């Protein structure tokens, strides 16, 4: 099965968010339309029906996503995965650990300049990282639905490790961006020493959300960062940002950039890492990412207890 990207459409309704994705198999004459309703971060219902592949292709070109490319979470056997279990606009399968993903409360806790100054409680946390200006702070604001993290058009806005407490039970962590071309040599070295120290010593880190700008072709520095995290056994999810930016010349459409990035990264992993398409402007991928984070968090909680 392959997912025809951009067929993932979002229709906000008073009772939740209706999403439509279109799937097509290269060898089948028909494609499957999958409608699903997400309310308060939970699946309410999902309905599938078939249309002709021609009709589906007229909507969008195929993004090759084989079943082998899916991220299958703990508690799910690959053989039992069905289309309805895959979050739209992602390769993420929803498993039994997915729970209440709604954010009811969010507050800034503290900024730290060193890993050892970070909060010392046992709450699980997710680190949001990526190149300067990729949209880390904007994504956090979109997820919590308030302007909590400072954003800027100028790269290099976030300079410290910022902890945000969510529902009084877990943290989202906004980190300085890497690869800021105009940063001084010493600032760049500082980034690697203090954020690398954070990743290697943070026992409560559930996973890293590695943000990748989908509006530009793959960048070496993102691949290097992913490889470094992989080598250090730090679980990561690729969060493609700015998927609303569809303008641009050949090779700069988000779908092309995402496909190229996956081809480059795919060779490095035995099991495919999870990825999801997002936009902080349209809210694309918001509920999906929160649901995915809930299943990672609940599994982590389960393992830790
Ligand atoms: N079109 C579009 N623009 C975005 C999106 N996310 C962020 N931006 C814009 O990108 C710029 C940078 O966003 P930030 O959230 O400050 O980026 P950051 O990664 O936190 O940057 P640093 O803190 O400097 O590392 C801002 O002008 C945002 O408005 C998105 O999904 N779509
Ligand atoms: Mg920032």
TrEMBL record:
Q: What are the EngB-type G domain coordinates in residue numbering?
A: 122-299
What keywords would UniProt list here? GTP-binding, Magnesium, Metal-binding, Nucleotide-binding
Give this protein's Gene Ontology molecular function annotations: GTP binding; metal ion binding
| The keyword Metal-binding is annotated on this UniProt entry | yes
Pfam families for this protein: MMR_HSR1 (PF01926)
Cofactor(s) needed: Mg(2+)
Q: Which family does it belong to?
A: Belongs to the TRAFAC class TrmE-Era-EngA-EngB-Septin-like GTPase superfamily. EngB GTPase family.
Q: Which PANTHER family match?
A: MSS1/TRME-RELATED GTP-BINDING PROTEIN, PROTEIN, PUTATIVE, EXPRESSED-RELATED
Kindly provide the name given to this protein in its UniProt entry: EngB-type G domain-containing protein
């Amino acid at each position: 099965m392959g997912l025809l990207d951009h067929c993932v459409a979002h229709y906000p309704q008073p009772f939740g968010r209706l999403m439509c994705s279109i799937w097509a198999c290269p060898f089948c004459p028909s494609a499957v339309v999958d409608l699903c309703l997400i309310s308060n971060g939970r699946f309410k219902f999902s309905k599938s029906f078939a249309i002709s592949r021609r009709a589906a292709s007229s909507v969008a070109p195929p993004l090759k996503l084989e079943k082998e490319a899916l991220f299958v979470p703990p508690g799910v056997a690959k053989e039992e995965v069905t289309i309805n279990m895959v979050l739209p606009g992602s390769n993420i399968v929803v498993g039994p650990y997915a729970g209440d993903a709604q954010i009811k409360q969010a507050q800034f806790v503290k900024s730290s300049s060193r890993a050892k100054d970070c909060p010392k409680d046992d709450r699980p946390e997710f680190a949001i990282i990526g190149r300067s200006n990729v949209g880390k702070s904007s994504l956090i604001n979109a997820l919590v639905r308030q302007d909590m993290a400072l954003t800027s058009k100028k790269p290099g806005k976030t300079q410290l490790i910022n902890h945000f407490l969510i529902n009084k039970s877990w943290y989202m962590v906004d980190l300085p961006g890497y690869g800021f071309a105009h940063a001084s040599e010493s600032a760049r070295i500082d980034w690697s020493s203090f954020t690398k120290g954070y990743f290697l010593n943070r026992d409560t880190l559930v996973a890293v959300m590695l943000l990748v700008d989908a509006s530009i072709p793959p960048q070496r520095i993102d691949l290097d960062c992913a490889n470094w995290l992989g080598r250090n056994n730090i679980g990561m999810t690729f969060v493609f940002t700015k998927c609303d930016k569809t303008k641009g010349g050949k090779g700069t459409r988000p779908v092309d950039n995402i496909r190229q990035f996956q081809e480059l990264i795919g060779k490095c992993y035995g099991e495919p890492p999870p990825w999801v398409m997002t936009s902080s402007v349209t809210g694309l991928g918001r509920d999906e990412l929160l649901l995915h984070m809930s299943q990672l968090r609940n599994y982590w909680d389960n393992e830790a207890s």
